[in-house]
């Protein structure tokens, strides 16, 4: 059960619970990837290639200055409540046959 941010407040930003779950899940994966790439870049051996640094530059960094949650899903929900993450209704993903 999440206490912060409130589900009622989140549903003011997103039209359905399903959309909220999908949006938070995708953003949480981006946050996890950003954290992993940041850790790799900070702990990378200087003699190896800069793959981690390049990957970090392509990631979506954290969007808020302060988070109440330390977990990626909680952080994603806070970003949604703040209006920093929204659903792009014009975007269509390429579907594979």
TrEMBL record:
Q: Does the keyword Nucleotidyltransferase apply?
A: yes
Question: What reaction does this catalyse?
Answer: RNA(n) + a ribonucleoside 5'-triphosphate = RNA(n+1) + diphosphate
List the record's Gene Ontology CC terms alphabetically: DNA-directed RNA polymerase complex
Asked whether the keyword Nucleotidyltransferase is assigned, the reply is: yes
EC category name: transferase
**Quaternary assembly:** The RNAP catalytic core consists of 2 alpha, 1 beta, 1 beta' and 1 omega subunit. When a sigma factor is associated with the core the holoenzyme is formed, which can initiate transcription.
The lineage's top-level taxon is Bacteria
The family assignment reads:
Belongs to the RNA polymerase subunit omega family.
Which keywords accompany this UniProt record? DNA-directed RNA polymerase, Nucleotidyltransferase, Transcription, Transferase
What is the purpose of this protein?
A: Promotes RNA polymerase assembly. Latches the N- and C-terminal regions of the beta' subunit thereby facilitating its interaction with the beta and alpha subunits.
Q: What is the lineage of its organism?
A: Bacteria, Bacillati, Bacillota, Bacilli, Lactobacillales
- Tell me which positions the record assigns to the signal sequence: none
Q: Name one GO molecular function term.
A: DNA binding
Show the InterPro entries listed in the entry: DNA-dir_RNA_pol_omega, Pol_omega/Rpo6/RPB6, RPB6/omega-like_sf
- Extract the coiled-coil ranges from the record: none
Question: Which GO terms of type biological process are on file?
Answer: DNA-templated transcription
The protein here is known as DNA-directed RNA polymerase subunit omega
State which Enzyme Commission number(s) the record gives: 2.7.7.6
């Amino acid at each position: 059960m999440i206490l912060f941010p409130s589900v009622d407040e989140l549903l003011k930003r997103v039209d359905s619970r399903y959309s909220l779950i999908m949006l938070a899940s995708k953003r949480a994966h981006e946050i996890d990837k950003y954290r992993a790439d940041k850790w790799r870049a900070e702990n990378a051996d200087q003699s190896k290639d800069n793959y981690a640094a390049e990957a970090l530059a392509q990631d979506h960094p954290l969007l808020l200055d302060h988070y109440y949650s330390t977990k990626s899903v909680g952080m994603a929900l806070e970003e949604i409540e703040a209006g920093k993450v929204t659903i792009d209704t014009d975007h269509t993903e390429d579907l594979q046959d």
